[in-house]
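Let us practice reading a record.
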Amino acid sequence: MTPHTLSKLLAPAILLAALLPASLAAQAWVPAPTQSPSEDSAPRDISGRGGNSPFSRNEADLPKGPAPRLNGHPDLSGYWIPSRKDKPIGNLGKDLPGYKLPFTPEGEAAHKYNVEHTVDPEALCIVGGLPRHNASGLPFQLLQGSDHLVFLYWYTTYRLVPFDGRKHTDDPDPSFFGEEIGSWDGDTFVIDSNAFKDKRTWADENADPHSDQTHVIERWTRPDVGHIHVEMDVIDLKYYTKPIHYQRTWLLGRPGDEVKEYSCSEDNVDLPHLQPGPGLIGPDGQRGYEKLAPLPPPPTKDHPATTSTGVDDDPQN
């Protein structure tokens, strides 16, 4: 999201600035300090900065035990927080040497165009879609039913994945998440997606492209009660010479954690000032700046959040 999101999200006193993936200043994931005693016994930190917040969790404090089951399969339901072990955030090439993606010449040209001419679609409040959402630094929520799995995101968008035995349609309409078909392979939930939009969309935070020929296969597992894991293959031979493999893990949130309403386009005062490309990408593959300025304290009743429009509102000046 763009810098305007900071002022909007401060209003409900939930500061997403350290995590919002389309803000340049928010790309560097800042690990929260380990809490002692247990973070779950400490007062809830709603600023988004501490270890006891809806956007961060210490792995040592996760519940222990096997994954719950539903209708003979692992129940993937839960509020899932990114693990601090998975870096760089937002980079589809996270697990590749030097974070280098295997571009075809056409893919290299598409990447160059995005960097030089395309404003981050999420900064324009356009849905990130796949594969980008799986690389996001924000938590998400899963709700598992008898024949559908629902992904709920902090962007106030969702994915509805059926696993009722249906097949891909002959000519699906392109969409940001593609036409998604789910199925169970033992204890692994498999999502097969095709028919993606290729305009006004990035494959990740770093302006890497994907084409209309993209095919995404996700394999979701819940090895225990406290973790969920995805193995994702992005197959796009128009832009990449071979499939891209991406994997990561999330941690179970605390009881009561859930996604909240978020209106991206409301008061988007920074829209006219946005520039093309992802901005700085550090040598660690992370979008953003290596040394972030300290965040201001969270707003209070006496010191509410304010939004600067860059216009002097004082009629005497």
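A brief commentary: The radius of gyration is 20 Å.
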